[in-house]
Each structure stands twice: as C-alpha cells, then as structure tokens.
Amino acid sequence: MVLKIIIVAILAFLAYILLFKKSREKEISSKKNEKITDEMVECPTCKTYVSQKEAIISNGKFYCSKECLENKEG
Ligand SMILES: [Zn+2]
C-alpha cells in the first residue's frame, strides 16, 4: 500500500526532526554555559574586572577575592 509507505515516511521524518532539534538545543545550551563562565564581571569593592570563572559569588555579586568579599560596603 502506497499510503502506508507515506505514513511511515512522515513518521520517520518527524522523528528525525525531533532528534535533530534536541541535539541542536543541547549544542546551543552548552555554548551558552561556556559564554557565562568567560564573561568579565566588575568587583563591587575594588572595581576590578575578573572572569566569572575566578570570581567569588556572594548574594548574586561577583568578588575578585576573599578580601573584597569581606570588605564589601553596604
Ligand atoms: Zn575586588
């Protein structure tokens, strides 16, 4: 039956699209994560720029060192 073949072809095509989309989303999100860790942020205490990778995070703020974290104002 030709109709059966068409239905199977459509299902296979949809499965392919879904798998392709998922793998693309994974790729994009992993790239996003890389970007976040490389981003430069300003230390609120000494105004020095540090990468998020090396910064100390406290209350949603990025500090360049433990000293700045302890000497924070406000
Ligand atoms: Zn600092």
Automatic annotation (TrEMBL):
Alphabetical UniProt keywords: Membrane, Metal-binding, Metal-thiolate cluster, Transmembrane, Transmembrane helix
Keyword check for Plastid: no
Organism expressing this protein natively: Arcobacter venerupis
Transmembrane segments: 6-23
Name the UniProt record assigns to this protein: Prokaryotic metallothionein
GO MF entries: metal ion binding
Gene3D superfamilies given in the database record: 2.30.170.10
